[in-house]
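All the exercises in this workshop are built on plain-text protein records. There is nothing in a record beyond a sequence line and a structure line. A learned vocabulary of local backbone shapes supplies the integers on the structure line. The question running through the whole workshop is how a given chain folds. Here is such a record, shown just as it appears in the course material:

***
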Amino acid sequence: MLCLPSDWKYTVSTDLTDQNRHQVPVDFHPVPHSVRRGVTGVRRRPDAAVRCYPRSYQRRRRRRFPFPTVRELREASSMVAMATSAYPPPPPFYRLYKDYEQDPSSAPEPPPPPPIDQIYTTFGADRKTNELLPSLESHNLRQLYPNSPNIDFKKELRTLNRELQLHILEVADILVERPSQYARRVEDISLIFSNLHHLLNSLRPHQARATLIHMLESQIQRRKQAIEDIKQRREEAQKLLGESLLILDGSQTN
């Protein structure tokens, strides 16, 4: 028969080794007379072992391994449960709309959209709402292709591309023969690139229209295909219904 004094504490571990001692200690209560058969008579899991340590030893272990309190453990478990809940509670501002079913006008109206000025700022740059393509002169750049409403884009792009190739070959020769003129040729190449980009940006409206036409044609084709599939399914369903009616009529006559 084994009976422990009331000034001792015990912890319960799930194995019989000394590797699982970092658990929250539980205050020991004196064993009542009905359970004076000893610790072995106390009902517990078969794979658990009762470890008994003096109070001084428990104090030393608490200094080395500070245990959380029961309140902290409960708060942590509740927070984890709320974070992992499949159906979290609704946000608190739903109380503002509790009278919406009785009086829809009781709900606050959404704020009006902010006014749109002619100039707005994006990433530190001022832009206009009309989104017009700025000219090369506004950036102090010389335009190398004719400024007319009817521009042959294919011809001008080929011309600029040919000039760019010639300037790159000249830069290779200048680096060997006249290195002092290198900066000027690089500026000419930069000007050709700027004209190429500006000419390509002038084609953006045509690209947008062509993209929109392609999207509309694709939608029309998909809808026609869907209509054909529906007609085919309808014919198959009507055929099955006719066969089933013939089978029913034959079974009734027999």
